[in-house]
Specification:
Blueprint (H helix, E strand, L loop, with lengths): L34 H11 L1 H5 L18 H18 L4 H10 L8 H11 L8 H12 L13 H9 L9 H9 L10 H24 L5 H4 L3 H13 L5 H31 L4 H6 L9 H19 L2 H23 L6 H7 L5 H12 L3 H12 L6
């Protein structure tokens, strides 16, 4: 047995299910499933997770069946997170649950939708998709008789709130929830949460590279101007002469993901060896993340991100759709905030007076939960006088 692993097969600094701090609302045990397996299953079965199928990653859902959505992205993040967690002897089920839940708070239309809601919510505390993910699993989901939300474990909620690092200025909802159920916001999250966060970066950049090539926004040869992609391209051609373009893209993306995963494992092991933690508490108390890219891979990842920013996220075709959808969401907010009686009954009850803070928050939550297609249909119903309400 690896001397760094305990008899249960996990590293001493893994977040063990047997040591979980439990749930806000006490519940009986889950039988054969561990607490983190139950968290994962509750996330998969919740409404917010199903809606990710029709929420934009970069391309709006109707632009093609083969592009990533928030749902397929989340599944890919979970696969990468489990692979890294297994190599590092961490709690795989916790890493998977966090990967599956990390985008539950994203509104329709990708980052354009997030920008739209943030601009409309500026007078009311702004909009943050990480806070909205926490809100979805602690308040907005209504599947259970005894409580709002999914009543996930402390460790999953902690990882959702601060997987990107300590929160010294938490957004309003995270601060509100923390006052009820303290999540130790000023420390780092567990190694499992850090794995989920880095797996998100790996999946996001590589799969946008794949989608960008398939959409014709740039070519594989143009992407190969980046050293990391060029090296993967050279390996793919060397091992498989005369590859057709679609297979070459798949081979390159697979190899870049593999290089990033291997680098993450190696750099994390190096940092763990230097820190010599004895428990998960030592990971949280450390002054920097332990799960990370090496400096060389961080630079390569930044180059890839910059390339995608210029060639994909700022492409005129993407921007045209993004701006159109952004305006639609802003108009929906204006119409519903000014006249919340147009909201469905449950949401209208939460909204209160037109133009109020309560109305703004109810409208924001309502819009953030929409899929792309439902938001476009709602926009059509509210703006086209020929369509009955």
């Amino acid at each position: 047995m690896d001397p760094k692993r305990l008899p249960d097969g996990l590293a001493p600094w893994a977040v063990r299910a047997s040591h979980s701090r439990g749930r806000l609302h006490a519940e009986p045990g889950g039988g054969a499933r561990s607490p983190y397996q139950r968290d994962r299953d509750r996330i998969i079965h919740c409404t917010s997770f199903r809606r990710l199928q029709y929420k934009t990653q970069v391309f709006v859902y109707h632009e093609g069946d083969h592009f990533r959505t928030r749902l397929t992205h989340s599944l890919e993040v979970a696969q990468i997170a489990r692979s890294i967690a297994r190599e590092l002897a961490l709690e795989e089920d916790l890493a998977e649950a966090l990967a599956l839940a990390h985008d539950l708070g994203h509104p329709p239309f990708g980052h354009g939708g997030e920008d739209a809601l943030d601009s409309m919510m500026k007078p009311h505390g702004g909009f943050d998709h990480n806070a909205q993910s926490l809100k979805a699993v602690t308040r907005l989901e209504t599947r259970y008789a005894g409580f709002d939300g999914l009543n996930l474990t402390w460790e999953t909620l902690e990882g959702l709130a601060k997987h990107n690092g300590p929160l010294r200025r938490p957004s309003p909802y995270i601060a509100e929830y923390d006052s009820l159920h303290p999540l130790e916001l000023t420390s780092h999250a567990s190694a499992e949460a850090q794995v989920a966060a880095l797996a998100d970066d790996i999946a996001y950049n590589n799969h946008d590279l794949d989608d960008g090539i398939r959409a014709g926004l740039f070519t594989l040869e143009e992407a190969a101007s980046l050293p990391l992609v060029r090296e993967a391209f050279a390996e793919a051609i060397r091992d498989n002469a005369h590859l057709p373009p679609d297979r070459a893209t798949g081979e390159v993306v697979r190899r870049v993901i593999n290089a990033m995963v291997n680098d993450t494992v190696a750099e994390t092991r190096r940092r763990i060896a230097a820190l010599a933690p004895g428990s998960a508490a030592d990971i949280r108390a450390h002054d920097r993340p332990v799960v990370a890219f090496s400096e060389a891979m961080m630079e390569a990842n930044n180059q890839l991100r910059a390339f995608l920013f210029q060639r994909m996220y700022r492409h005129w075709r993407v921007n045209r759709t993004t701006q159109k959808c952004k305006r639609a969401l802003q108009l929906l907010f204006t119409l519903l905030h000014g006249e919340p009686r147009q909201l469905p009954p449950g949401w209208h009850a939460k909204a209160g007076e037109p133009g109020s803070q309560a109305a703004a928050q109810a409208v924001c939550d309502y819009l953030a939960g929409m899929t792309d297609r439902f938001a476009l249909e709602e926009h059509r119903r509210l703006t086209d006088p020929s369509i009955p309400g």
